Each structure stands twice: as C-alpha cells, then as structure tokens.
Queue: 4 jobs
Job 1
Amino acid sequence: MASSTRVDLDGNPIKPLTICMIGAGGFIGSHLCEKLMSETPHKVLAVDVYNDKIKHLLEPSTLPFSDRISFHRLNIKHDSRLEGLIKMADLTINLAAICTPADYNTRPLDTIYSNFIDALPVVKYCSENGKRLIHFSTCEVYGKTIGCFLPKDSPLRQDPSYFVLKEDESPCIFGPIDKQRWSYACAKQLIERLVYAEGAENGLEFTIVRPFNWIGPRMDFIPGIDGPSEGVPRVLACFSNNLLRREPLKLVDGGESQRTFIYIKDAIEAVLLMIENPARANGHIFNVGNPNNEVTVRQLAEMMTKVYSKVSGESELETPTVDVSSQEFYGTGYDDSDKRIPDMTIINKQLGWNPKTSLWDLLESTLTYQHRTYAEAIKQAISKPVAS
Ligand code: NAD
Ligand code: UDP
C-alpha cells in the first residue's frame, strides 16, 4: 500500500512525485503503472494512443488510487499538450517506441522516426524545463557480440570478455544498412547519445535503461484475438499463439540465437529503484536483464512447450517445432542479434538490484496468464465457420 514513510536507499524519505509516463499503455508501461499505484504514493500522467492494457487501473473511478492516475490520449508526434504535461511532472519516463523486430525491416521509416525523431521533443522539453528524464533504450544498441566474428571453433568464444555486454566498455556493432534491423538499434543509439550530450552540455538529469528481453503477461498481442491476424509480435507472444492454437512453434533460422529473459516484475523493481533514487541513478546507463536465464530460442520453445502442457493440462504436440527461414518469416533485410548477456556490475553497485525469477518460474506464471486470458477466445475463433 502507498505509505508516506517510504525511504530511499540512503534512508532519506521519498517525496511523492508526479510522473509523466509516455507509452504508459504498452507492456512495460502497464506494469510500471500497476506498481506505482499499488506500492507508492506517486501520481502518473499516463500518455499513450491506447489504454486497453491499463483500463483496469483507470476504471471504475472508485478505485483507491483513482485520483493518482489520469490518462492522456495523445500522439507525441504532433500534440502541443506534451510540453504542458512534462512541465506539470517532476519526472518524465519515455517508453514510446516501435520496438517489434517484424517492424524494423517492413516499416523502417516509422521505426527510425519513432525511436529518434519523435523522442527529440521529449528530451528537449525535459532539458529546457529542468525536468528529470528516464529514457528507455534497448540492449540492441550493443548489436552483435565481438565473439560472433571469431571462427566457430575458437576457444575464445567461451571467454566472457568476447560476449558479456558492459554499458561503459562494449562497442556497438551493427550490420550493413540493408539489414534494416539495425535501423532500430542505430536510432536508439543516437537518441542515447543525444540524451547524454544534453546531460553533458545543458545539465539534463537523465537515466537510460537498456532492457534485455523483459517478458510477462500483457506483452504484445495474440494475432487474430487482440491484434491483427497477420501481425508478428515478439517471440513470447508468437510462441504463446502457436501453443494456444496447437501449432508447431516456428524457429527462425534454426532457433540458434541466444537470449536472456527476465520477468517483467523483477525488471519493474529496478525501474522503481531508479525513480526513487535519483542521486544514484542520474547520469547512468543501466543494463536491466537476467544473465542467469540464458537459452537459445530453440531451448525457449522446448521449455515453453513443457510449461504450457503443465499449466493447460494439454498434451505436447508430436512435432512441437518447425524450422522457417528469416526471409520467409520476416522478409528481406532481417538480421539477428547472436547473444545478449548483460553485465550487472553498474546496476548492482548503484542500486543494489538483482533479478530473482528463474526462466521456468516466469514462464509458468506468464503461460498461466496466457491460457486463462486467451484459450477460450482461441477456441471460439477456431470453431467459427470460415465465410465462403
Ligand atoms: P510496447 O509497444 O508494448 O509499448 C510502447 C507504447 O508506446 C505503446 O503502448 C504505444 O502505443 C506507445 N507509443 C508509441 N508511439 C507513440 C506515440 N507516437 N505517441 C504516444 N504513444 C506512443 O513496448 P514495450 O515492450 O513496453 O517497450 C517500451 C520501451 O522499452 C520501448 O522504448 C522499447 O524500445 C524498450 N524496450 C523494451 C524491451 C522489452 O523487452 N520489452 C526490450 C528492449 C527495449
Ligand atoms: N523468433 C523465432 N520464432 C518466432 C519469433 C521470434 O524463432 O516465432 C526468434 C527471433 O528470430 C529472434 C528471437 O526469437 O532470434 C527473439 O525475437 P523477439 O522478436 O522476441 O525480439 P529480439 O530479442 O530479437 O529483439
């Protein structure tokens, strides 16, 4: 419950804040709003073009925190109300972005605009008005690991200095221009550099967050149920959709890429520490991920198949996975990140934060949610006669 006796990591009382959260209606935003409403006294000005994922926090107006959250439906590309909202707040958190790999090579212009151009006014208004900014970047700014350029049989591939990603040391290694996945990474990198420069030249108080595959309930959409039938969400929702429909999970280019997945609720704890400890968070870039939860995409598919069978009571398919090429799945211009292990030294030192939830446990709670939320709707959609 919200309490006035909350203290920060240095034992100082935390003053209630007003937070302008841009992109509050998305996956991360919805969890952050929930956390702020249930555990803190802070106010949220929730900005987005959609609010479906935070409806439960906005209605009915008798909710105990109703006076602390308000929704502002606006597109930050072109809305003069944005500066006023930033001025009203103590802190702005910018989550708004196009951040789904299927969009990077099919909507490259929207991707670049959304991640760089549209974020510019947010940075400018924060800087000009002396407001603190927490900007959401991505682990993708690291691009490929140095290790992936070594020969396949090189023993150096096992050496962490060739793959662990460090905020203050690792280079950012992107592929060629026609591999448009890197347009997202490049736009995010440039906005990071701009935020950093505003800090250096104009004293902007900022924190940059680099999420490493945060996953959990409400991530993206299930195609044909609460999103377009032909839409391609991120891997958690793709695989959930396959499992719900009893289809084989599609492994892009053999499913050899590696990822570390972190439970959204663990990651939100880290963001709350940043919000409430500006003296420790300002001027820093933080990796937020779980280095202990590394799997290949193939291993993720196998684990999700097992966990889904457990939580749904349904048998596993005889052929649980199928290989597809990236060309077929995403189209021309797709490329992939090979491996993403976050170094945790900086966030650990500054905020004393560590992730807690194992991959199995986070999949169990997430797939229980997916089953509860979508299984019936999928059954109905499948049983509907196809219009002739
Ligand atoms: P999301 O797509 O669920 O949320 C983004 C929200 O921003 C959406 O609700 C969208 O409607 C809103 N938005 C986009 N453009 C807007 C505009 N012009 N005006 C108003 N609202 C707009 O994505 P998410 O997973 O919650 O990610 C949030 C941020 O974190 C993004 O910046 C993303 O790049 C970054 N990130 C997330 C992950 C992850 O693991 N989820 C990984 C790397 C980076
Ligand atoms: N992927 C896959 N099958 C799918 C969806 C994604 O094999 O149905 C792969 C994708 O090629 C990538 C990984 O899963 O290697 C993670 O993809 P996601 O879209 O979640 O985002 P990324 O981590 O690449 O930013």
Job 2
Amino acid sequence: MRHISDVGWIEVITGCMYSGKTEELIKRLRRAIIAKQSVKVFKPMIDNRYSEDKISSHNRNMLEAIVVRHSDEILPLVEENDDVIGIEEVQFFDEKIIDVCKYLADNGKRVIVAGLDQDYLGQPFENTMRLMAEAEYVTKLLAICVKCGNLANRTQRTVKKKDRIVVGSVGMYEARCRKCFDPEL
Ligand code: ADP
Ligand code: ZN
C-alpha cells in the first residue's frame, strides 16, 4: 500500500483520565484500518492495565498494540509502507518520544498520540505539552466531574501517594472539574 501522502503530520488527543482519549485513538485507528491503511500502535511498558499487547479504553474497547520499553525501539519497528502510527499514554515515554514523532511525521506518516495533559497535581506532562506545540491537530477532551457533574479537565488522585506515576484507574483516580479538584487531597 502506498503512503496516503508524502507529507505527514501529528495529531494529539489529550485531556484528563476518563475523558475518552483511548476511545478516540481507537476510533481514528479503526477507520484507517477500514480504509486499508497500514496501522501500527505502540504503548509504553509501564501501563499494563487490562492487557499487555492491546490498548484498552475504560469501557474495554481494544486494539492490538506493540508494547515497548523505550522510545528508541519504535523506529526500527516502523516499516516503509506503514501509513498511520498510533502512540498511547505518550506521557509515560522517555523524552525522546518527541523526536520519534517528529521524525515519523517528517517522513510522511500520520502520527496520532494520546496522552494526559496534566499530572495529579495539575502540572503539565512535558511530552504531551511539547507535542501539543509541535502538532498540526490537537483535540482536548473532557470527562464528567464525579463530584458535581460539570465538565472535568483534571485527574484527582484519591489515594495518598507522592510518586508522579502511579498506574491505576478506578478507585485511584477520578475525573474532577477545576472547582472540585484538590491537589492536596
Ligand atoms: P481515557 O483514555 O481518556 O482515560 P477512555 O477512552 O479509556 O478514557 O475511557 C472513556 C470512558 O470512560 C467513557 O466513555 C466512559 O464510559 C468511562 N467513564 C468513566 N468515568 C467517567 C467520567 N467521570 N466521565 C466520563 N467518562 C467516564
Ligand atoms: Zn466538580
């Protein structure tokens, strides 16, 4: 299959937890697969929720993915005829993921990344922040605040842990609006 275009680009899908980033990523990738484009999806090793070699949304929508430990494993796995490269949980990759995405887009690939824009303290995740600046398209999604029902753009950690990365979902994190978000817990 030939490339869809000589010119690639970067799409960023971002927002808080439960905002539907993975669903949106899966939707875009599925449509490309239906259009018979060659699609590869990568995810970092750190996130082993639900399944190892799939990306999986909170409502259990799934797609096959290649699990990598480091961003430098990605380029050797991308083939000339691949059209679309999906990257899940981009905030958990090492910082070289930004150059990997740039290289792929510069070489004609459609690169779709999904990732959290903020950590549990409301601080930006650097990879997502930098890719938002680099990208041609940015989609910021919102969840529903579990406290008040307003639109939520924050991820509230509901367990007392100081590490920036604590992998987990239901019971450890909640979607909250800016009014109900409390980084002090
Ligand atoms: P993300 O990748 O952004 O964490 P997912 O795509 O995995 O989000 O999951 C989105 C789904 O999570 C929604 O379609 C819905 O079924 C579920 N969900 C659970 N809690 C919420 C919430 N507070 N607001 C919105 N959706 C929620
Ligand atoms: Zn609220």
Job 3
Amino acid sequence: HQPRHEATNANFPRDGEGRVHHVGVKKGEGGPKFSYVQSFLMTTVANRILSVGDHRRASVIASLFDNPSSNLVTTSSRGFTVHTGTFNKVPVTVIATGMGFPMMDFLVRECRAVVEGPMVIMRFGTCGTPQTHIPIGSVVVASEGSIFIRRNPDAWEQDGSWDEKESKYIFSKVVRSDPEISKRLAENMKKMVADCQVYEGLGATADSFYASQGRTDDSFDDDNANLIDQMLEKYSSISALEMETFHLFDLARCSKGTIRSSAAAIVLAQRRSNAFLDKATTERIEKEGGRAVLLTLSETDLTAPSNGN
Ligand code: R1P
Ligand code: URA
C-alpha cells in the first residue's frame, strides 16, 4: 500500500498527484473553469507560454486575459506562479519564474512534461544594454538569438594552475531565436507600446546580474572592469543583458522540434551612462508590451518547424 504523496521516479520526480517537482503543475487540471476551451485545454499549462521573472509582472499580464476572474492560478513552493486562461479565445499561460537560468530550465522541462503537442514559449523580461544608442525605456527583441556569458571560477584558483592569457569570462556561440516569431513580436511591440523604441539585436544571458554582466564591486575580486568592451568586441550587436533567454533558446533547439521560442526585454539599465528606468514607465511598458507578447503568442502557428530549423 503506497502513501498517496510519495514521489515515484528520481529521474523525473512527480508527487503522488502527478505534479512535477518544482513548477508544481500536472496534466488535466483545466476542468470546468474553462467553458469554451474545455475540450482542448486539459492541463494547467497551455501550449503557449509567456515566461517572466517578476511575479507582479505575471499578474498584470494575466489580468489582460479574456476573463481574468476565471484564470486558473497555481503557485509552487519553489517560487513559480502559473496563470492559465485565454487571450483572444486562445489558451495561454503566463509563468513567473523568479530569476536565473536554472529557473528557466525547470520551466521548460517541467512544462514540456505536462503539455501535449507542439509548444511556443516566449520570454518578456527586463535587461540592461551595453549599446550607447539604445535608451532606457526601449524594448529589445532577441531577433539575432542569444549568447551565454559565464564567470569561470577556475580563474580564481590559487594554486598557480590558471593561465593568465585565458579569459576569466566565457562567451558561448549564438543560439538562434525563431525568426518568424521574432519578426511578429517586433511588429506587435512597435504597434502596441507607446513612446518606445523597439530594437532587434543579439541577447546576452549572464550567470549573474553582477560580475558576468560587467558590474563592478569593490567587495569582490571580479576582474571585470573591461568585460562590457570585451563582449562587444566579440559580438558587436549585443543589445540586452539579462539572465534567462539563452537557456530558453538552447532548450528549444534541443526539444526535438517541439518548441518554438523568442524573447523581448524592456531596457531598464543603460550600462554606459548608468541611467535606470523609473517604476511608472516600467509598469506601463510591462502592460503594453505584455499585451503585444500575448497577441504574438496567440497568433503563432504551433505546427511550424521549431525555431526555423
Ligand atoms: C534581474 O534583475 C532579473 O531581471 C531580468 C533578468 O533576466 C533577471 O531575471 O529579467 P526579469 O525582469 O524577467 O526577471
Ligand atoms: N536585468 C538584468 O539582468 N540586468 C540588468 O541590467 C537589468 C535587468
């Protein structure tokens, strides 16, 4: 006689009700809340997902759904909040992840495990920009894909084994976003967000907000004073520095053709002038831009090849 809540498989743990271990969702929870989509929405998570870092941003965007009072909302003890409903009668899910690429790993893998059929996952985040011509309050669409920047801890090894000629920060190659979705996303952003420049460029996802984004801190030996120059020397079109998008595109690439993905980010931080966006403007762009992402998600053809491959 098994206890009801025992997790059953260490390779991909779920609880006794079938909920995945971190995001806390399972198949088949749509139920009677979804009158007109009930027949095809049979899960807590729709095939069209918008991922954001901030829980407040997720709630604001979920309030733009057709009938927000009947949204299905699930929270997990690991910091995920999942809002599912419809936008223009199309089932959609907004998920607040918190921050960092491991959270994106949980989101993509655990949602993939509870959703049937092809998926599109888009991210709408915030970012800093190393480009002098991009002002705060702009939106950057990662049309050129993203790279990953990580700090190499071996460089601080004190046994003398580190070769000083090597870089202390490692830049990956580019992983692509879906070109068609990125194009639609940029068009919708331009139409739907007031007083906002929309740029298309390369994203750079870092393993930290601080050292690997070139922020300096007297309390730590990060040796990163020239990191912004170094990243632009290698990839001159880096326009958005943030912490999750590369991993989304990387997993979409590895999803055996089942996930399409793109991303946009609001420029909060101008890394050359040190300007930082005010709260009121941030909240307005989150709402208007959130609507543009929902429209793009709802219009996306799920059956097209993933990320143009
Ligand atoms: C850091 O402040 C956070 O902001 C960005 C980064 O990717 C990181 O998660 O995105 P979100 O605003 O979506 O969290
Ligand atoms: N998010 C980041 O990761 N970096 C920034 O500079 C701003 C938001």
Job 4
Amino acid sequence: MPAGEPIPVIPRPVSAESVDGAPFTLRPGARVSVAGAGAGEVAELLLAELASDCRRDLTVVHEPPAFGDIAIVIAEDEVPEDARAEGYNLAVTAEGVRIGAASAAGAFWGVQTLRQLLPVECASDPLTIEPVIIRDRPRYAYRGAMLDVARHFFAPAEVRRFIDAIVLLKINHLHLHLTDDQGWRIQIERWPNLTAHGGSTGSDGSAGGFYTQDEFRELVAYAAARHVTIVPELDMPGHTNAALASYPELTPSGVAPALYTGSKVGFSTLQADDVRTWEFIDDVVGEVAALTPGPYLHIGGDECLSTSPGEFLRFIARATAIVADHGKTPAGWHEMGKSDALPDGTIGQYWDFLTPRESAGDETLSFVRQGGSVIMSPADVSYLDIVYEEGDRLGQDWADGPTSIRQSYEWDPARIVPGLGDAHILGVEGPVWTETLATIDDVEEMVFPRLAAVAEVAWSPAPADTADVESVRDFGDFAPRLAALGAHWAAAGTNFRRVPEIAWH
Ligand code: TNX
C-alpha cells in the first residue's frame, strides 16, 4: 500500500504501519500453521471463508510456520493486557503472515482483517499482500446488529448468511427481535399456539414462520463458533399482538384479537395485574433462557402506548426480576429506565436521536444509576431500515430520514447523552426493522454499507476529544476503504446499496 493511502480495512485498526520489503504471496497449497488453544478452529474457519472468497486450497498444520505460511498463534503474551479479550496483531512480510492473539476471538478478528487485505480478484495469480504491521483491539466489547425476524421471518439459512456477512465487520452480537405484533418466531413448548397461530403470518400478510427450539440452538451454535453471541428479544408488554391473538386468556376481555399484518406500533399490551400473564412470562422467559448460553435476555419494553404508566412500572419490575431469576442479565429499550426497580446490571438500549428528545436521556442514565450499562443505537444514524434517499422502495423515514452513509459514520456514542461516557457504554448496535423488507436481499441492501459505518464507530478508537465530531471522523479516509470492501461484498454475493457518495470499484 503506497504511503499515505488508508489501509483497506473496516473497521479501521488501531494502528497499521507499512513496512519495507517484498509483498507476501499466497501460493496455492500454502499451509496454515497453528499453535495454542482454539487456533485450529479459527484456521478451519479461515479455510472455509477463503474457499468461498478465493478458492485457495490451504491445509492446516500443527507445526511451526515455514516460508510462505499463514501462522495463527494464540498465547497470553501475544498482545498487551488491554487487548487480550479480542485484540490481535497481524504481521505481513514476504516470509509469511502471522496473526497473534490471546484469545480465539482475537485471532478470528485478525482473520477478518486478513480477508479484507487479500485481493478480491480470485482469478489473479499470484495473490499478494503488501507488507504491513497491524495492532488492533476494539473500543467497545459489544458490537451488535439487530435483525427483526418478527415482521418478516427469515429462515435459519438466511440468518446464517447474515452472520457470515456481519463477522467480516467484527460484529460480535446478533440481537434477534423474535416477537412483535406481526409474529411470534420462537417455539415455546408450553405455549405451542404462539408459533402455530402467532407465527403463521407477518407484515403485509407474508408467510410467517418460526424457529423450532432445535433450529434456534443450531443458530446459537453457528454464531458462537464465529464468536457471535445471540441476544434473544421477547418484546413486552407492548408489541404483543401475536401472543394475544394466540392466547385469548392473556387479554382482559378473553377475546383474541385478529392477527395483525400492518405497520402501526403501540396498540397491544400484556396485563401487569393478571396472574395468567406471569405464568406466561415465566414460561417463555424460562424456555428462551434455557436455549441461550449468552448472558443477555432482551425484553423490549419500547413504545408501550397502550399500557398505563403505573402498570408499565409494575410490569417492568416484575418481568426483569423473572429474567434475573432465570440467570440472565435483562436488557431492554431505554423506556425501561422509567423504572427504578431494575435488577443490578440491567442493560439499556438507547434508540432516540443524536440529540435526545424528551426524557430519553434521563431514562438512559437511569440504567447507569442502577448499576447497569448502555448500548447505543441512535435511530437517526444507526437504524438501518431508514431510507437512504427520499422515495426509496425499501425502508421507513420516521427517524429524521433519509440517513446517508456519511451520517451513519459521523457520530460518536460518547457524545449523545450528556453524562454518559465510555465507562458506561457497553457498545453500539445497528438494528434493522423489517416491516418493508420481505427478503434477505432487501435486508442486505439496507444493512450494507451502513453497518460498516456503525461497526467502525463501535470498534475503532474514539476520535480525538474535540467538539466537532465531523472533523475528527474522516469520511475522506473511510470512503475509499468502503469502496474496497464493496468489492469483497460483490465477490461474496452480499447485496449492498451502491450509494452515490462512494466510488465503488
Ligand atoms: C421503532 S424504536 C421501533 C420498531 C419499529 C421501528 C421502525 C423501537 C425500539 N421500536 O417497533 O419497527 O421503529 O423503524
């Protein structure tokens, strides 16, 4: 890479220094030499990814590296202490590539950097990489994408494809919005009608669907093998029409509402003062907690416009306590911060704008006051279903849309809610809501490229401490790297929007 040109990697690494010397050449039949616990598994994933990226026939060996090998070494002292959880070093020289990390996750993220450094032109022989030394570690522990499988359902194979695409950006949490007014998507053995009836349709009268518990377990395992934690969301007490339609005893009248296929929000609610509600919640939370090895269980709590304020508070106190009783840390949208009875450590997810409106900022700080931390998903920059341009076929525009790629890049999580800084920010998440997105191609068109911007905000170091975030997050540096990434997406068959601000190759 010529001096001065940004290294073509997203998220931008902490440091990348070009070094003198001949490039590395990846020869057919090159070996991946592994050492340390977990390195073999990371190498197998590299092989699978390179096979689909570039059809190279590599073999894994448990031997010290020879000339021309890719080495993956996992050992405690490979990286400084503050980089042990997920950091890595990557050295590229004529002798070989060496990825060093203290954890399998760190090595896996190093592999994602290597994939972006390799030329896209698989046909071109030889494949070479200019010499470089990269040191890298994430700013935030939680880097998320949220997929709404409730409005439109996406089958397990489509979710796996989504996971494959997000790991290239070092996203390590996939929040699955499993239930909403339009559909219930996770099998609950004690309440089978939730999926039999409540999962039978979706937005715009789409076909619906749901994950059996076995399918869900397989998804969790597929994600975990790629260092992605699944965060399941059961949205309550609002956004529950599909549940109410399936079990009339959850409604005050005892009459089930019809299934709903429109896009309104705020019209449904569970009853906080009804004993049946709590049997229901204990069962569904218990079953989903048992399916989930990850620490978090998200219970929504957003847009409860049909729940009285007092009932909302009683509901949130009891529902979060149930989550904690089942051994999980509760998470919820920032409205849950209205409650001052949250279990210690409850995670809030901020979805208001870059400039907080009404009580959104205070509700968010409430999680911190109660010993918890916050995930930042400001809707006007990180909601991936908001239109790119006026008049788009896909997406919604309520969150101050359109949202350009530049807007989704030029912001900082620690400069949104006054008083909320990095010490209390667990991370950043880009949600994609799917009222208007019927296919996984539609989803990808909305998610890419903007998730690349959100991923860099979540991973790369904080911009220098100046008041003007636009001047320190350098879109001019990001744009050519994004163009290079587009070539990888095209080669991998990932759909993305060729936004006009970027000179796509
Ligand atoms: C808001 S903000 C929602 C979702 C919608 C989305 C559409 C929040 C937590 N909920 O119910 O799908 O807007 O953009």
